[in-house]
Amino acid sequence: MHIDLRGKVALVTGVGRGIGREIVTTLAREGVTTVSVDVSATDLQDTSAELDATGTPHREFVCDIRDSARIGEVVQAVDEAYGRLDILVNNAGVVGNGAIDVMDEATWDLVHDVNLKGTFLMCRAVLPIMKRQRWGRVINAASFAALVPIYASGAYASSKIAVAHFTRALAGEVGPWNITANAYAPGMIPTAMNGFAQLPPEEQSRLLDTLSLRRWGDKADIASLICFLASDHASYITGTLIDVSGGKLASQMPRLAYEAAAADGDYDFDAAASE
Ligand SMILES: NC(=O)c1ccc[n+]([C@@H]2O[C@H](COP(=O)([O-])OP(=O)(O)OC[C@H]3O[C@@H](n4cnc5c(N)ncnc54)[C@H](O)[C@@H]3O)[C@@H](O)[C@H]2O)c1
After folding, report:
1. What's the gap in Å between 90 CA and the centre of ligand 1?
2. For ligand 1, atom 32, which residue shows the shortest CA distance?
């Protein structure tokens, strides 16, 4: 199976760093013309420099996805420049932690405005182009927190399950135009958002013990899924929430398998910790 995305145009949000930067540079290396959106002008410049190296056409826009007027300008500029927009990846997101009895309203509003309303505003702006061309792929970042919340994630987890349900609602509306809409749920991927890789080794080990594949997720794990979902190979997949968590729900106590493998001499916890 060969994934061929050449000639497509993709808009990806939240590409200044982290998973978003990996997604947009991967798409560019696959020959996709990319449109990058981020709220941070300096981070966007760094991403732009990486995109230069791919040799594929690209444009960058500083844009807060809570700002519907600015989104309108960006999408109009893309339409004028390329006359099409095939793939929309709503990757931008923020966390705002806090137990519910002490959470301030500003945190709640920020998390829901960026993660949920921003996703809605982007979709609303892009759909007329996708409908016109009778082809489109909308791919939205949910989170494993949408499946199982973590402590003090009331705002974040509720925003992400809302993204997943919003995506299903969208899929149910846009099928007649050959547009698919899917969401994905990353598990634990070290980025600036979470700092997993900076945790003390014993803390990292404790978290890895919750994963059947017992390694951190890689940003490329997400970028590969995006390429698949954007391709013709995924043309019959819509309205899903895809778990990309290394098996957080696969087993009640994943460590048992590793202890058994270690007893057989087939797994080395010390070597894994130093990787
Ligand atoms: N890293 C993980 O383990 C993980 C797990 C589950 C879900 N996710 C989701 O994946 C996505 C990317 O996560 P990440 O870890 O790369 O995060 P990150 O914080 O490293 O990057 C987020 C990017 O979004 C941008 N952004 C934030 N608010 C914005 C706004 N209002 N408008 C435009 N851009 C904005 C930031 O400037 C940044 O470049 C997020 O939606 C996140 O919730 C990540």
Report:
1. 10
2. 64
Atom of ligand 1 nearest to the CA of 65: 32
Residue range 20-75, pLDDT digits in tens: 999 999 999 999 999 999 999 999 999 999 999 999 999 999 999 999 999 999 99
Is 156 noted as a catalytic residue in this protein? yes
Q: Which residues contact 230 (CB under 8 A, 6 or more apart)?
A: 5, 8, 10, 27, 32, 86, 87, 137, 139
Model confidence band, residue 274 (pLDDT cutoffs 50, 70, 90): confident
Please tell me the distance from the alpha carbon of residue 145 to that of residue 129, in angstroms, as a whole number: 32
| Identified catalytic residue from 82, 151, 156, 267 | 156
**CATH superfamily, domain at 9-197+216-246:** NAD(P)-binding Rossmann-like Domain (3.40.50.720)
> 122-140: per-residue pLDDT in tens?
999 999 999 999 999 999 9
Cβ of 19 less than 6 Å from ligand 1: yes
Distances 209 to 48, 145, 217, 262 between C-alpha atoms, Å: 37, 17, 13, 14
Q: Report residue 259 as tokens.
A: 């202890």
